[in-house]
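Ops channel
N.P.: pipeline sanity check, posting one input/output pair.
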């Protein structure tokens, strides 16, 4: 990989440690710099000092849910992409509530196949910003 290509930062916000850590391993193996937060509150602390290019966020989290976190993230870090995912069938109500407030999100279903995860991450990042090709 050429030295002038920026390493993309991906924040994983997932309360199930085994899932979060596995996603971080998959992304790290592909060359992304990944950090994990097991709560939305911890994610807010992380992004204060480490600006992710993309956040992979579980919808159902303790305390602050992933959609509310995503709204806060977009308000404070508009350049950060967001990929929501959930294994819960009742996320539709949360999405409808966010839409009423002017926030549109798509949610991928858990479990995520690693190929789908990587394709989605790559697609979201490629549409957010052109890759650096010249130093």
């Amino acid at each position: 990989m050429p030295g002038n290509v920026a390493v993309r930062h991906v924040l994983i916000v997932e309360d199930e440690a085994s899932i979060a850590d596995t996603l971080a391993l998959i992304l790290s193996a592909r060359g992304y710099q990944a950090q994990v937060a097991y709560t939305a509150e911890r994610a807010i602390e992380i992004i204060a000092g480490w600006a992710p290019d993309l956040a992979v966020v579980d919808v159902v989290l303790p305390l602050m849910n992933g959609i509310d976190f995503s709204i806060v993230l977009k308000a404070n870090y508009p350049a950060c992409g967001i990929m929501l995912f959930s294994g819960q069938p009742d996320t539709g109500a949360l999405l409808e509530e966010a839409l009423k407030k002017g926030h549109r999100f798509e949610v991928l279903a858990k479990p995520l196949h690693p190929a789908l995860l990587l394709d989605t991450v790559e697609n979201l990042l490629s549409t957010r910003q052109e890759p650096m090709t010249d130093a």
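N.P.: looks fine end to end. Residues 17 and 122 are 23 Å apart (CA to CA).
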